[in-house]
């Protein structure tokens, strides 16, 4: 494996792929870890305001996650196509795809931000936020939501840069953004250096300022990420053919991601019906779970980038085997981390709140996490591998059906109607992740898209559906 002076990694030159996976994964891990740390710091600082404020932040962030998928859809699809084009040596196409992906994400991001800024109160009521929490929700939804377009720009720019193989640049930017955000949080929330105490409003200002600085740095990095420098006038670039490819691969990704986040939003609204303490407990535990899953998620993302490059270079054998390497490494890491959470969860929850009822609720879910997180890793790793080779419609269909029937439907049936509460909801979350994980694993083992691509590369003849042989691996990658 070699890296250019600009940090772009030539993944397809890696013999086994092992080195490439780790070189891609560790910067992604640091970046995601710091983003998770940012959320944890926010949660801890907001908890000093009140547990009610934590509940508002928890459910609002679920909404933001759902909306963010609307304008990062193009970024995800464009990122996969960028990696495939670079793998096949078509760098100019990769550059055009990156520009269009960033442009589309930014336009949609501005539209969403305007809606949140203007209609925060009706949105809060639609989320079943109680009347006493509406004033807090107004502040957070209006100002953090109003700056949400910056999240879309960061995501699209970062995705394009990472899929060239340069995962370090976004990592360094993430470090800077997190440091700035933590410092501004401390100053603005608690009114340091003679400034007024802004409370939840301080979180909002800190979010917008730190994200804006991050976008500026990523734009500079993006301009030099390809063989030909990207200039401001280049954002007028449009290719109907390439844009159509982005749309074809992106809309299933968008529906998939939106379905997941909307299902989580629905589950959070069920938790709001259970009470503020249950909602706060889930928010605290979700923060801890994020740390357990961070390195596993980074491995899954790195695997997607690597497999997309290998698929573009028609190295099908390495692509197929690389998926299992990604899965095994991710499962080992996630399982070890979730065991540590099980052993020290009560102590860790104590860092967030002194309310023993909230802590007890969180502790009651720690054993279920031993099953939930490995199931998530299975689903994430194999689902990302299918996405990397363009098989996005299958993952979309599986996700929508499973999350709607098992995730949301089951959570309401058992958690609310049957009165099982958080335990019932968690059991349904486990069933949903396990069902999706097993289905995407089965799809990958079938090698449908890989065999079709190999046949096209060999002569364009379609593969008959009845052929299930391993002939693919008798060929040279």
UniProtKB/TrEMBL annotation:
Keywords of the record: Cell membrane, Membrane, Transmembrane, Transmembrane helix, Transport
Domain of life: Bacteria
Membrane-topology descriptor: Multi-pass membrane protein
Principal cellular location given in the protein's record: membrane
Bilayer-crossing regions: 21-41, 53-76, 97-120, 140-161, 173-196, 208-230, 251-274, 294-313, 325-345, 351-372, 393-414, 420-441
Keyword flag Ribonucleoprotein: no
InterPro entries membership: MATE_fam (IPR002528), MdtK-like (IPR048279), YsiQ (IPR047135)
The UniProt record lists the keyword Membrane: yes
Localization, UniProt: Cell membrane
Name this protein carries in UniProt: MATE family efflux transporter
Organism for this UniProt entry: Paenibacillus borealis
